[in-house]
Write a structure and sequence with these properties.
This protein has helices spanning 33-45, 63-78, 90-99, 101-104, 111-124, and strands spanning 9-16, 19-25, 50-57, 82-86, 107-108. It has 125 residues and is α/β, with parallel strands linked by helices. It has a single domain (9-107), classed as STAS domain (Transcription Regulator spoIIAA). A five-stranded mixed sheet has the order 1-2-3-4-5. Helix 1 (33-45) runs parallel beside helix 2 (63-78). Pfam families: STAS.
Length: 125
C-alpha cells in the first residue's frame, strides 16, 4: 500500500479579463500549498480581481489550504474583488463547513454559476 500522495497540479485560465479560473488537482497541504499561493498572488499582481478556485479534484485539504483561501479572500476584498470556490470535493467541503470558511467564501456548483455570481458582484460595485 502506497502512502504517496497525488502531486499538486494547477492550471490557470482567464474566462474574462479580470477573472482567473484556477483549477487545482491533488492534495492541498503544507507541502503543496505554497505553489497555489504563488499562482494566486501572480494573478492578483496581473490585475485579476476575481479568483475562481475549482477544487473538484482536490481529495484532501489541510489548514494550509484554508489559510491560502482566506488570505486570497482578504486580498481580493482590498481591490473590490472576490473569491469563489467551484464544486469542492466532499471531503474538502466538509472541512470548509466545519471551519466556517463556507460561510465567508461562497461556493458554486459550476464555472457558469461562479461567473454569473462574479458578474453580479461586479455589477453591484
Amino acid at each position: 500500500m502506497s502512502t504517496e500522495q497525488a502531486p499538486l497540479s494547477i492550471d490557470v485560465t482567464l474566462p474574462r479579463e479580470d477573472v482567473a479560473l484556477v483549477t487545482v488537482k491533488g492534495f492541498l497541504d503544507v507541502d503543496t500549498g505554497t505553489e497555489l499561493h504563488h499562482h494566486l498572488a501572480n494573478q492578483m499582481h496581473h490585475g485579476r480581481r476575481h479568483l475562481l478556485l475549482d477544487l473538484s479534484a482536490v481529495p484532501f485539504m489541510d489548514s494550509s489550504g484554508i489559510n491560502i483561501i482566506l488570505k486570497a479572500y482578504k486580498e481580493t476584498r482590498r481591490v473590490e474583488g472576490s473569491v469563489r470556490l467551484i464544486d469542492p470535493a466532499p471531503a474538502v467541503q466538509r472541512i470548509l463547513d466545519l471551519t466556517g470558511v463556507s460561510l465567508t467564501v461562497p461556493s458554486a456548483k459550476s464555472l457558469d454559476e461562479a461567473l454569473a455570481e462574479t458578474g453580479d458582484a461586479t455589477d453591484r460595485q
